[in-house]
Amino acid sequence: MLIYGINPILEALRAGSVRQIRVVATARDRVRDIRDLARAQGVPVHVVPPAELDRAAHGGVHQGVVADIDDARDYDVRELVALAEGPPLLVVLDGIEDPHNLGAILRTVDAAGAHGVVRQTRHAARLDGAAAKASAGAVAHVRIANVVNIARAIDELKDAGVWTVGLDAGATASYAQMDFTQPTALVLGAEGQGLRRLVRDTCDHLASIPMQGHVGSLNVSAAAAVVLFEAVRQRRAAGPR
């Protein structure tokens, strides 16, 4: 898998998943921390022409450095639940196709201390490139389960004792009314269309974020941040469980 940008590569090095790094000569001072950490780990660093990085990054803002990394470990749904410390807090992505939204959600999942992401493999953004850069390196740390069928994955979560809360602009209940201190998976729908009908019907609860202005909803990554940090607030207030 290929990633680019200074912060994503630093985080991948800290996670021990980098195979090799390519930099342009003009960026060598700017990526000194990367070069030092790569040297300490025995990761090869190659100086290459700028055009090579431009091609590798497919036009993305690579900041003069790209890295080839190991593919992320693919967890299954039950592993995400079992590996959680305390009541699981997970995010389920129903067809998020914008890599910048995917990356921003991964960054928020990591920042909120959530325990992992379940994502659909078809009609979904890739984890490398723009998504990895938008995640600011969180892609190297967040546990991810890739599944074919989101509705079936929600059923697996229910069987494992996890309540599922679908975020839906038309829901009458507010997200603030949900009890996020219990094992919970937040289910987020695709940009524009939201949750698909079967996925929406499979969720235990539906909740919305009340809008106070003129727009009808938030960007999916912003919505994820709002609700995840409400979950963090509730869990801190409740104390250890």
Structural description of this entry:
- Helix 5 (about 100-110) links the parallel strand 6 and strand 7 (about 115-120).
- The protein starts with a strand and ends with a helix.
- The protein has 2 domains: about 1-70, 60s Ribosomal Protein L30, Chain: A, CATH 3.30.1330; about 75-240, SPOUT methyltransferase, trefoil knot domain (Alpha/beta knot).
- The strands form 2 sheets. It has a 7-stranded parallel beta sheet, sandwiched between helices.
- The chain is built from 9 helices and 11 strands.
- The chain is about 35% helix and about 20% strand.
- It is of the alpha/beta class and about 240 residues long.
Keyword list:
single chain; 7-stranded parallel sheet; 11 strands; 60s Ribosomal Protein L30, Chain: A; 4-stranded mixed sheet; alpha/beta; elongated; 9 helices; 241 residues; Alpha/beta knot; 37% helix
Précis, in short:
This protein is α/β, with parallel strands linked by helices and 241 residues long. Helices cover 37% and strands 20% of the residues.
Itemize the secondary structure elements and their pairings.
Elements: E1 2-4, H1 6-15, E2 18-23, H2 32-41, E3 45-47, H3 50-56, E4 65-69, E5 74-75, H4 77-83, E6 89-94, H5 99-112, E7 116-120, H6 129-134, E8 144-147, H7 150-159, E9 163-167, E10 184-189, H8 197-202, E11 205-207, H9 220-238
Parallel strand pairs: 2-3, 5-8, 6-7, 6-10, 7-8, 9-10, 9-11
Antiparallel strand pairs: 1-4, 2-4
Helix pairs in contact: 1-2, 5-9
